[in-house]
Amino acid sequence: MLGNLKPLEIVLILLVVVLLFGAKKLPDMARSLGKSARILKSEAKAMKNDDATAESTAAPQETAAPRTIQAAPGDTTSARPVAEPADRTQA
């Protein structure tokens, strides 16, 4: 889409944006957008750290009976056990 725009068209679009929002408000909007991006980035990093901490401190759970998949109504096969991976941690 942007590949088809000529330099004059881009300048006209920027001029319309400046006229709509005003030259004074544009720096404030950019500053607020940057602040929001920094907050989002720090929150995402904090959530990632919280997940890593929770996984490392989690106590091993007792082994439960294997889960089974129930046969569909009218299916002649019986229920079969579900093979679950032994290690659920991801690198």
Descriptive key words:
2 strands; elongated; single chain; mainly alpha; 91 residues; 2 helices; two-stranded antiparallel sheet
Would you give an account of this structure?
With 91 residues, this protein is mainly alpha-helical. Helices cover 53% and strands 4% of the residues. A two-stranded antiparallel sheet has the order 1-2. The longest helix has 33 residues, at 25-57. The model has no long low-confidence stretch (mean pLDDT 77).
Number of strands: 2
Task: Evaluate the radius of gyration.
Answer: 28 Å
How many strands, what sense, and barrel or not for the largest sheet?
2 strands, antiparallel
Strand content: under 5%
Order of helices and strands: HHEE
Low-confidence stretches: none
**Mean pLDDT, nearest integer?**
77
Q: Quaternary status of these chains? A: single chain
- Structural class assignment: mainly alpha
* N→C terminal distance: 38 Å
Specify the helix fraction band. Answer: 40-55%
Strand order of the largest sheet: 1-2
* General shape: elongated
Count of DSSP H/I helices: 2
What does this entry show, briefly?
With 91 residues, the chain is mostly helical. The protein contains 2 helices and 2 strands; from the N terminus they run ααββ.
What topology does this entry show?
Blueprint: H1 7-21, H2 25-57, E1 68-69, E2 80-81
Antiparallel strand pairs: 1-2
